[in-house]
Amino acid sequence: IVRPKEYFDKNNNEIKFKFTFSSPNISLTPNPFANSALWLRFLARMTKENVANMAPRYEKVILCRGMSEKSDSQEAYVKTLKTAGYSCDCLPTLCFEFVNITELRSCLLSPSLYYGLILTSRRAAEAIGLAAKENDSILHPWRTLPVYCVGPATESFAKSHLGSENCFGKETGNAKELAELLVVSVAKKSKPLLYPCSEIGRETIEKILNENDVKVHKIVAYRTLPTKTLECDLSKFMDDRSKIFVFFSPSTIEHVVALLKEKSYDMNNIKAVAIGPVTGQALLNAGLNIFAIANKPDPMSLLDAISNAEKSEFDEKSD
């Protein structure tokens, strides 16, 4: 049996399912529901496991991301989710403003003073690119220095846009895991690591490195703001049907939840999924129930988290 497709019949105000049968042993009339005996036999053969592996319970997935993140990374998330049977949309939640670029450029002009770079987001890499925009030869000495990145997407961006040749950390899923990698990779009391970050960046990396005598030079390189169209864009998704909202950072949660409360939307219809434990904690702090947490910032980890959460929810309601 191919996964059924759920749809809403506006004429009868009902939720219905379309089934496609792939077994050569099943013969149906044009309307399978017309043959009630055959339909009952079919239902009798359906086990709990069969049902749990059918179509996604919540068909719509909303990715809450930065306004300029229409990249290969985003396309990979959309493709993975659609292949699994979900309808996927993106909610542009954040825009970014770069700050302290002159200070960052001054640091980049002195590569001999640093051990390497820490990049926890694509935005941090963009800030470095902006600082070197007028003279990209500034980046040449940095290309061979170690660059420690959170996740494969950040590493890929550093390689393609900064020319970084010595990247580490793509297997890490959050700042804590990257900091732990740095502790075992960087000698104590070595030259400092240059760390451009967000204005609201958590202190996780800095705290762990300081506790282990690994020097870090932190520079606030960008700040996050809600997009001007967020209110209008969010309203398009807020009907009476439950949907999965995927939050990639605490900042996305802050701005989306503020609007949900301001407009008195029913937050019970939101199945909130977090990328990483820090974002998961932010969901709790904001008063949203956690549907699932993806351990790593990659499409398959997200799909696994959603699928497991749906199966667990089905099992609970079936018991």
From TrEMBL:
Pfam families: HEM4. It comes from the Eukaryota. Its EC number is 4.2.1.75. It catalyses: hydroxymethylbilane = uroporphyrinogen III + H2O. The keyword Nucleus does not apply. Keywords: Heme biosynthesis, Lyase, Porphyrin biosynthesis. Coiled coil: none annotated. One of its GO terms (molecular function) is uroporphyrinogen-III synthase activity. GO terms for biological process: heme B biosynthetic process; protoporphyrinogen IX biosynthetic process; uroporphyrinogen III biosynthetic process. The keyword Lyase applies. GO terms for cellular component: cytosol. Pathway: Porphyrin-containing compound metabolism; protoporphyrin-IX biosynthesis; coproporphyrinogen-III from 5-aminolevulinate: step 3/4. Residues 76-303 form the Tetrapyrrole biosynthesis uroporphyrinogen III synthase domain. PANTHER family: UROPORPHYRINOGEN III SYNTHASE (PTHR12390), UROPORPHYRINOGEN-III SYNTHASE (PTHR12390:SF0). Belongs to the uroporphyrinogen-III synthase family. Catalyzes cyclization of the linear tetrapyrrole, hydroxymethylbilane, to the macrocyclic uroporphyrinogen III, the branch point for the various sub-pathways leading to the wide diversity of porphyrins. Porphyrins act as cofactors for a multitude of enzymes that perform a variety of processes within the cell such as methionine synthesis (vitamin B12) or oxygen transport (heme). This is Uroporphyrinogen-III synthase. It comes from Heterotrigona itama.
